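so my prof wants the structure for this chain in the tokens format not the other one, which i didnt know existed until like an hour ago. anyway here's the sequence
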Amino acid sequence: MDEYLELLYENIPEKLRASALILQLARNPDNLEELFQNGLN
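here's what i got, hopefully its the right format
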């Protein structure tokens, strides 16, 4: 997850890739707690 978040600070293609990867994680309810915790840090 940290790697995906770091990609959000790169140029547009990397931002799009990171957004797509995070979206894939968010589609699985089992990952929502970790995504929520990372959003608070």
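also thought this was worth mentioning. Residues 1-26 form one domain.
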